[in-house]
Amino acid sequence: MVGHEGGPLDDLLPTVAALAAHLDDDLGGRADDDLQTRLAALARIILNRLTTKDSA
Question: What are the residues whose beta carbons fall under 8 Å from the beta carbon of 15, sequence distance 6 or more?
């Protein structure tokens, strides 16, 4: 999605902001399948980074 594996979580903030804007502006607050897929991918990236950070 964005950033690189193991990078800091704060480099994902623009992606979070873009997804929130898309949800609010384009989808009227109702998540479609594409947004749900993108949010799930972002959640996996965050969890992977947290797991990598904890094992370091």
Answer: 1, 2, 3, 42
